[in-house]
Amino acid sequence: MELPVLNDKPAGKGGCSASSCGSTEDQLDHLSDAIRAKVQNHPCYSEDAHHYFARMHVAVAPACNIQCHYCNRKYDCSNESRPGVVSELLTPDQAVKKTMAVAATIPQMTVLGIAGPGDPLANPERTFETFRRLSQDAPDIKLCVSTNGLALPESVEELAKHNIDHVTITINCVDPEIGAQIYPWIFWENRRIKGKRAAKILIDQQQKGLEMLVAKGILVKVNSVMIPGVNDKHLAEVSRIVKAKGAFLHNVMPLIAEAEHGTFYGVMGQRGPTQDELMDLQDACSGDMNMMRHCRQCRADAVGLLGEDRGDEFTLDKIETMEIDYQAAMEKRKVIHQAIEAEMNSKRAAKAETAAKHAEAEKLQTRPVLMAVATSGQGVINQHFGHAKEFLIYEASPDGVRFISHRKTELYCSGDETCGDGESVLQRTIRTLEGCEAVLCSKIGFEPWEMLEEAGIMPNGEHAMEPIEEAVLAVYREMAAAGKLDEAAVRQRATA
Ligand code: CLF
Ligand code: SF4
Questions:
Q1: Residue ID of nearest Cα to ligand 1 atom 10
Q2: In this structure, which residue's CA is closest to atom 12 in ligand 1?
Q3: Ligand nearest to the CA of 251
Q4: Which of 57, 70, 76, 78 to mutate to test the pocket of ligand 2 (most atoms within 8 A of CB)?
Q5: Are residues 291 and 369 in the same domain?
Q6: Which of 253, 327, 345, 447 yields a CA-CA distance of 20 to 30 A from 351?
Q7: pLDDT per residue as tens, the chain (496 positions)
Q8: Of all atoms in ligand 2, which is nearest to the CA of residue 67?
Q9: Which ligand 1 atom sits nearest the alpha carbon of residue 253?
């Protein structure tokens, strides 16, 4: 059957789609069947799945039990969210209705997460009431929660009771000296505690909670906010420790600190990491751990594929008017999920074939190259350059293709206005792609084509609807054949 699409774009044809095309190991190959079943349609836990499956968050948890220096309580919990966005608070009843409305309308939505706007486990009644009802009424939806970990140990039994298979703990340090620079206080046993003592309690609770979850067979992802000069040198050690304790995935996120967000770090001028610094740290940690590189730092009420937000289609007044037959919706969802999984499996097989061919071919003696890709999902190149709100960045090298990161941009097609500094949207987009040597999209207009070429970035619309990794590898080989990839040249990287 033809797969449904999320962005009014047609589904792609077969071929390779997973990360590290050209490497011999698939991201999920080493997992047991039981764990594979848990992650293969979770868009955060599987890089493959994020091209196909969507998640949603319900903002039911307003309170928090700690203070992070990168958070302003006016905004969503920045352990999972971008600062500077505010969610509309829902009651558990409204959250359940909204979840079922989204699940019936977007069958690719497989995961419901609670990630704020405060800490879900600091709001146990609201959080668990939502989970309890959903685990009964919508058993085909995976339940996921993200927490700072302070109240985690006493919540583990309750989490297990409601079939919550995936828990994210934000662990920024395992050293109270460092923790005291990140957390000014915690609220613990009815008292506010400050400094190193507060950080030590938080760290102990996080580690204990992690161990208890792993013992229960619940998958744990660890998020860490990378704060240059504070914990950047320390996070490889965090990665090693959490892996040893059984965490499944580590997500190192960049600090976002702007003065206008009113956070301590923002006001104090603490900078976030550059893309190179983030990538270097992710690479350094990846020796020890599966790293997540496709996180979009979603808001606490996000709906849709990672990177898109369809929340406006599901406001409370719109949900009120929707008639939902959830039994019928579940049947439809099941069929669609099976079709997506079949397509993912065939792409995985095709990817292995491409990887084998690449390995058998004469080994290239060429330098790595970064390429930007415009896609709206399904793991294929299916987006017009001017319609892209973000580009996925891939690295091609003699070893194959690997996903590196995403870079957000503005919609050039919505009107190429010039901003205060005289730079047009198109110029800003091209600046965002700095360090890339090619951009692959389904189509591109004459003006951006010319400007990209002038900036030294090769536009390419010849691989429309092809699987991303296959197309990136083909372009890389063309560049190599054209003698553009002198092995002595220094590796280029984005610095934007
Ligand atoms: Fe939400 Fe988080 Fe569950 Fe995913 S998000 S609670 S694990 S369902 Fe995902 Fe969003 Fe990154 Fe979070 S992309 S911010 S990692
Ligand atoms: Fe803010 Fe989340 Fe930290 Fe609480 S845990 S202070 S809501 S970032």
A1: 298
A2: 80
A3: 1
A4: 78
A5: no
A6: 253
A7: 333 433 332 222 222 222 333 333 445 556 677 788 888 889 998 888 999 999 999 999 999 999 999 998 776 677 766 655 667 899 999 999 999 999 999 999 999 999 988 999 999 999 999 999 999 999 999 999 999 999 999 999 999 999 898 999 999 999 999 999 999 999 999 999 999 999 999 999 999 999 999 999 999 999 999 999 999 999 999 999 999 999 999 999 999 988 888 899 999 999 999 988 999 999 999 877 789 999 888 888 889 999 888 988 999 999 988 888 999 999 999 999 999 999 988 888 888 887 788 777 777 788 999 999 999 888 899 999 999 989 999 999 888 888 988 898 876 655 555 555 567 888 888 898 999 999 999 999 999 999 999 999 999 999 999 999 999 999 998 998 888 887 555 445 444 4
A8: 6
A9: 11
- Domain containing 478: what range? 364-495
265 CA to middle of ligand 2, Å?
13
Contact 419, 432 (CB under 8 A): no
Q: Do 371 and 292 fall within a single domain? A: no
Task: Indicate whether 355 belongs to any domain.
Answer: no
| CA 104 / ligand 1 centre spacing (Å) | 21
Pocket residue to mutate for ligand 1, from 38, 55, 297, most atoms within 8 A of Cβ: 55
Considering 319, 344, 373, which residue would you say is the last residue of a domain?
A: 319
In a domain, 218, yes or no: yes
> Quick one: which ligand is closest to 252's CA?
1
Assigned domain for 284 exists: yes
> Do 314 and 374 reside in the same domain of the chain?
no
Per-position DSSP letters for 169-195, written without gaps between them: EE---S-HHHHTTT-SEEEETTEEEEH
- DSSP notation for 221-287: EEEEEE-TTTTTTTHHHHHHHHHHTT--EEEEEE----GGGT-HHHHHTPPPPPHHHHHHHHHHHHT
∠ CA 11-13-18 to the nearest 5 degrees? 90
The total number of structural domains that make up the chain = 2
Tell me the two tokens of residue 123.
């709001």
